What does this fold into?
Amino acid sequence: MLKNGTLVATEPFSIIGDYKEIHMRAAISDDATVSVAKDQVATELGEEFVILNLKTGTYYGLEEVSARIWNFIQEPQTVQSVRSKLLQEYNVDEDRCHKDLMNVLRKLEGEGLITIGEA
It folds into this structure.
């Protein structure tokens, strides 16, 4: 969440529907390529996105910053590129930005909404 120009520690990814445990990889490299998965449809609602995973039938909601990440990865991007774009748009510490970005990417990948390919 963006509060007074600073990224605030809130849950950047909310699930609309049933919660399930997410098993995620330990590390994602800066050179990894991130893109949206093919088995989903998404629509923008203001500054948010609603995504339907077509394999599971589960709906997801992405708020402000997570929605910007989603916009960035409509075409394959490296993690480093996405982080650089976030740092340009938001007044946030680089380490904090990295941690929050990794958190969002791991959750999106765990839900099958994105693919991450290592370089």
